[in-house]
Amino acid sequence: MDAAKRLATLNRIRKLSVLMDTSIRLPVFGFRIGLDPIIGLVPGAGDLISTTFSAYIIFLATRFGIPPKDLAEMIFNITLEAVVGTVPLVGDLFDAFYKSNIRNLAILEQHLMTVEPEVEAVKSEIYESKVSRF
After folding, report:
1. Which of 92, 120, 101, 100 is nearest to 10 (CA)?
2. Residue 55's closest CA among 32, 79, 73, 36?
3. Residue 75's pLDDT is what?
4. Residues whose CB is less than 8 angstroms from the CB of residue 74 and which lie 6 or more positions away in sequence, other chains included
5. Taking the model in full, what pTM does it have?
6. DSSP 3-state assignment of 37?
């Protein structure tokens, strides 16, 4: 993949991670949740749908050649959230606090910072050009 496609994939991972884990701010508490714990409220299918989104994020992350150790940690994160998420109410609270997709995004970004710092440089250039237009 060229740098533009890699950056587009990274941005897709970022958007999905935020959507699933931190896209909604609870006004009174200031705590952020995403669609993951909300979807998880649907008995049975909710946790399966959330886990499918998380698996898709990991699939996209594999395009960056993430090391097996980091990949195993990412899989552990979604497996833990999927297993604990099956417990009614407690699992949904766990989903809201654990935020496996954001954790996995952090693992991917740490890998990219050490292996491909040019991706971050390109991201900064694109961000600055978009900000300067507004």
Report:
1. 120
2. 79
3. 97
4. 58, 61, 66, 103, 104, 107, 108
5. 0.84
6. helix
Question: Nearest-CA neighbor of 84 among 67, 96, 70?
Answer: 96
Tokens of 24: 């909604």
Question: Tokens standing for 15?
Answer: 């958007």
Question: Rounded to whole angstroms, how far apart are CA atoms 123 and 53?
Answer: 24
- Model confidence at 11: pLDDT above 60: yes
pLDDT on residue 78: 96
- DSSP for 49-110 reads HHHHHHHHHHHHHHTTT--HHHHHHHHHHHHHHHHHHTSTTHHHHHHHHH-HHHHHHHHHHH
Burial code (b: 16+ CB inside 10 Å, e: under 16) for 29-66 equals eeeebbbbbbbbeeeeebbeebbebbeebbeebeebeb
Query: Residue 73 has which token pair?
Result: 């940690």
What is the pLDDT at residue 132? Answer: 42
